[in-house]
Amino acid sequence: MSEAPARPTNFIRQIIDEDLASGKHTSVHTRFPPEPNGYLHIGHAKSICLNFGIAQDYQGECNLRFDDTNPVKEDMEFVDSIKRDVEWLGFCWSGDVRYSSDYFDQLYQYAVELINKGLAYVDELSAEQIREYRGTLTAPGKESPYRHRSVAENLALFNKMRDGEFAEGAACLRAKIDMASPFIVMRDPVLYRIKFAEHHQTGNKWCIYPMYDFTHCISDALEGITHSLCTLEFQDNRRLYDWVLENITIPCHPRQYEFSRLNLEYAIMSKRKLSQLVTEQIVHGWDDPRMPTISGLRRRGYTAAAIREFCLRIGVTKQDNNVEMAALESCIRDDLNEHAPRAMAVLDPVKIVIENMPDGTEILTVPNHPNKAEMGSRSLPFSREIYIDRADFREEANKQYKRLVLGKEVRLRHAYVIRAERVEKDAAGEITTIFCSYDPATLGKDPADGRKVKGVIHWVSAADALPAEIRLYDRLFSVANPAAADDFLATINPDSLVIKQGLVEPSLANAPAEQAYQFEREGYFCADSRDSSTDRLVFNRTVGLRDTWAKTEA
Ligand code: ATP
Ligand code: MG
Hints:
Blueprint: H1 11-21, E1 29-32, H2 42-57, E2 61-66, H3 76-88, E3 98-99, H4 104-116, E4 120-123, H5 127-133, H6 151-162, E5 172-175, E6 190-194, E7 208-210, H7 212-222, E8 227-231, H8 237-247, E9 255-259, E10 262-264, H9 271-279, H10 294-300, H11 304-314, E11 321-323, H12 325-339, E12 342-343, E13 345-346, E14 349-354, E15 362-367, E16 377-382, E17 385-389, E18 393-394, E19 404-405, E20 409-412, E21 417-425, E22 431-439, E23 456-457, E24 460-461, E25 466-473, E26 497-504, E27 516-519, E28 523-527, E29 537-543, H13 548-552
Parallel strand pairs: 1-2, 2-3, 8-9, 10-11, 12-27, 14-22, 18-19, 20-23, 25-29
Antiparallel strand pairs: 4-5, 5-6, 6-7, 13-26, 14-17, 15-16, 17-24, 20-21, 21-22, 25-26, 27-28, 28-29
The structure holds adenosine-5'-triphosphate (ATP) and magnesium ion.
């Protein structure tokens, strides 16, 4: 991955270029506005890279603003995780973290202004009636009987709402716009509702909370946002965004632009559904390495650079954005192929005894990366008893199989050429030991007599290897579009986690959490940040290698 990624171009950046060229704006100010009701996922990464990326490239600013208008679903755990994830992705927000709740007093005053202008009223229809009266895409809505209250009455009732004198659901504040508008969002949308809920920022100060559509545009304007970027489902809401700002006294009118959401195959992006996976304990928390969350990907071994590269490659458009999992995987492979030190681990060990080798340990010095000398080298113990992977030996095989076969030779990675002489089996017929001989003249050299040895297999020294739990993660869902299933939980991949008790080379004793390694011929792995310790090593498979081994070997 290049250190200075190319500057992306997309329709939003074109709009910004034009706004700067025409003098409409002299600088750019964006924001990323998550609701703290879940952890961030790879879809949010797209929005983060867009908003913070624009601020970076245009020497502008990007705010982090928590869109915290629904205290019932929000939590400080989510606030903290979101800040951590944005920073980890490599971005800095401008100034302090903001909260929509910072503006509750001002929002209240703007609501009063709308009431005073005859543009908002307190409605006492039930939520269900409001829905009925709203009409449909083909039928206009119907006016509420409370729509024509006087300004004075509305002011008094709105105060009553704020003072907790109405029950939850008994009243709400609505904008007075147009019940026949072809845009349903414009049919007298609700601006404030009553919720007797403690808020993570404002405590019990409020029992009325502003709705997203009222809050978002005003928060943007108060912060001097120039370009307010959101996903396409808010396209119609842009009319309401503009209506609110046009009808209150506020000096700034940011412009909203919409782009398409990221959908990733074999994954789910709905926070509600992700939260269900967590609460029903189908996964082990929001940072389970199978989750499409930033923290899950991070724990699995994804790097921030790979996620940023992915966002660059998928681009920003208005077209539906269904991306193959392979696109994400190729970003992390490209990164780790270049940057991950190599190591050896045997996932399904079978013992080899090299009978003609003397007792004792030989310390080999081997490079950490096949073509990056600057990544240094490490010591690798070799001895007459080693383990190889059970799948790397066959008693009989055709020429396609370039691993160890009885009576034939193979090279041990970084070590010698060995020949399999005989096997020992248990009562069940399972091989317990493979007895081999080695050619002591083949360390780093081909056999002197010109014998060709094609296959190379990995191994660990029996006396020196460390036991490790190895977690093989796969896609969480077994269908490409789990969101479309009637019951998405029925499409969970039962093999999304397979646990192996393996052996790793001793240099991995203190493998730091999240440090990626390529386990040669197996894939990319990192020590698990929650469960791995020097007493009990646990590695997560980030992603397999490109299928070269599978393709060239039977
Ligand atoms: P959900 O609908 O699942 O609750 P959300 O979109 O409401 O998710 P927010 O916390 O409001 O989640 O999202 C913050 C920002 O991230 C918004 O600007 C939103 O448009 C953007 N975003 C969320 N999901 C995606 C996605 N899949 N692709 C691109 N941007 C996204
Ligand atoms: Mg949202």
